[in-house]
Structures are given as C-alpha cells and as structure tokens.
Amino acid sequence: MGRAPCCDKANVKKGPWSPEEDNKLKSYIEQHGTGGNWIALPQKIGLKRCGKSCRLRWLNYLRPNIKHGGFSEEEDDIICSLYISIGSRWSIIAAQLPGRTDNDIKNYWNTRLKKKLLGKQRKEQQAARRGSSIKQEMMKRSGGGSSMVPNSSNNQNPQWAPGLPPALLAPIPYSNQEPRVNDHASIRKLLIKLGGRFSQDDLPIQLHGTSTHHFANYNTSSTGQQIYQAVNIPTSPTDAFNSTGSATQFAQAQSYVDEAELNVLQGKINSFPAELDHQEIVYNNPQGLDGLEFLCGEGMVDNIRIGTSISGTESNFWGEMSSLVYPPVASNYGGMQQGTDLQECAFGELRYHRAN
DNA sequence: AAGAATGCCAACCGCAGTGAC
DNA sequence: TGTCACTGCGGTTGGCATTCT
C-alpha cells in the first residue's frame, strides 16, 4: 500500500520562495512557533506550499542566526574530519557548526571541499610518485626488502606507525598502471594531513593543538602515539546515541534553544548506553566510507567496508582503523570506555550552542 | 560578443524512523 | 501489534550565475 501524499500536489506551489511567502512563514513561526505540525502550517497561514517545503525553508533559510557561504578554514577542517569519521551525516556535521545547515554543508562539500581535497590528493599522488621512484632506486642500491612496511629507520614519523591498520601496512593490489594512493607514506601523509589542517598546502602538518571548541587538545601517550581528545564532540552521535532518534535531536539542538527541549534532550543523553566503542561504531557504519575512495583508493575502501584487512585478520583492525580515522574530532576513546564522558561531552556541546 | 561549459545553491523527492492510535 | 501520519535526513535536480572558449 502506498503512502498517502503529505499534501495535494496539484494545489501546491513549487520552486523559489517569494519574499511575501517568506514573510508570512517567518512572522507566523516567530509568533506562534511551528505548532508541532508542519503539514497543517501552510493552510493556517494561507500558503500554497507543502508542509515539508515550509519546514525546509524555515530550517535552511529563515531560521535566525543562519550563516550562508564564507566557510572558514576551521570549518573546512571540522567538516572534513567529521566526514572521514561518520560519512555523509550532514545533520550531525551541521550540529557542530553553529549557524550552518546540513544542506549548506552538503552543498559546500559536494561543490567545493571535495574538489579541494581531490586536488590535494592529486598533488600527493604526484609527490608520492616522485618519492617512490627515488625510494625504489635507493632500495635497489641497498638491496633492501619491502618498502611498504615502515620501520623506525625509514619512517619520518615513527610515533605514528603503531597505529597503522594492517591494510595500510600491506601493499594493496591494484590492476591498472596508474599509481594510486597505495603508497604507505603517501596515504599516511594524506590521512595525517586530513586529520590536521586541510587548508594548508605545505608541510609541516599542523595538528590542532590550539584550543578551539572542537579540538581542545591532543596528548602523547606513553608509547608516543598521538591520542586525540575531542572535548565537546560526541563520538559519532548517530550511532553513539541510542535508537530513540536522539541523534536527530542532538543535531537540531543547536537551533532550537527552548529550555524544555533541552531538558528532554538531556534526559535522552543521560539514558544513553555508553558502552559502544569505536570499533562498533565504525563497523556498523560502513556507509560512512562511501565517497572516500578518492582519499585512499577503492581497494582500500572495499577492504575497510568488508571489515577485513589484506592479511585476513579482522580482530583489531577496526580499532586501529578507527584510531586512525577518528582522531582529530570524534575520538574520545577513553571517555567512551569509561562510559560517562560522552554524556557530559555531548551535553557540553549543547551548552555551547545554547550559549551562542 | 555570444554560446557553451561549469559552478553553485535552493528546493524537491523519496525513504526510514518514530510516535500515536 | 499493526497501521498510519508526520518528521527528518540524504541524495538529486533545476535553474541561475559565472567563467571559459
């Protein structure tokens, strides 16, 4: 049985909104609120629009404190980091950028940011190509073994190596002659760069050590591996929050600053089971990798998607992978394990938005 | 200067989740 | 417990603006 249409399509206006329509909608909502029923709203105010259309217009354009265009580099970084972490969950990403809408971010990603990263990837490929030929030449001369597995002597950043997933440590088979980003150093550099400042062309890579509300700090563990801590961002809210739809509410919390709603939200967050870990989150979110082929090659993503490494081991791969992918923004591993910090962290972010 | 190509963004569409009954 | 209506989300499209040839 098909679903009944939400409105009479024949009598509904489509296309761009006129200033009159905007005024009607805006003034009504400002005075009366949405009334919790978007479908009925256009009839109430005499608009020949679908309720969904009204909602979209309000959320994406008429709502107060909406910012359009002019994305800062910090916002770029946040978007990229979150995209790597959680994929195209635009509403969640938007929740981390006050004043931005999911539609705005989605458009920005599709039209500019992705291309920007692609451009960087191409640069990396070219650099990697040059680098690998030099490396090969050196290996020939020294008669050395595998060039793909880094070790402390040839790794520019030996501290980073322990966190490498097997798939990144192993050579990736590829069929065509076009060199892809399967060169370890290139992947590492690219991912580190993606985890750091996306906007800067030149190394050295600058990680977020400065205090922003998203990237508060990162520490160095006893093993020397960098551990990132996101103070305000919950780890993958969609999956981290339970199935009551609270992720959606979290995403909206930035704009709906009604105290009652915040209280409801806090209740949901407080009931959140915090035992989920990164592995589960990423494992259950294979679609989060969609579109990332351009970052590390399709073969890599396929391997990631099916949850197996080149070596055939699955055990620790996701944990390692997530530690690689998550870092700058969404990782609060310790907090997740403790099962409490996420709640505080999530609500801290809400407080932040509310304060703004 | 004009047409074509590309970029950009607002809006639409359809699906999935959720709650009410 | 099942059905239905509503909401929210992500993908896609249409059309205007800008750039290129």
Automatic annotation (TrEMBL):
Annotated ranges, domain Myb-like: 9-62, 63-113
Main location: nucleus
Protein name as it appears in the record: Transcription factor RAX3-like
GO molecular function terms noted in the UniProt entry: DNA binding
Domain called HTH myb-type: residue spans: 9-62, 63-117
Chain positions covered by the region annotation Disordered: 119-164
Keyword hit for Chaperone: no
SUPFAM superfamilies cross-referenced by the UniProt entry: Homeodomain-like
Transmembrane segments: none
Compositionally biased region (Polar residues): 148-159
Keyword Signal: no
Species of origin: Juglans regia (English walnut)
A GO cellular component annotation in the UniProt record: nucleus
Keyword terms, alphabetized: DNA-binding, Nucleus, Repeat, Transcription, Transcription regulation
PANTHER family referenced in this protein's UniProt entry, alphabetically: MYB-LIKE DNA-BINDING DOMAIN CONTAINING PROTEIN, EXPRESSED, OS09G0431300 PROTEIN
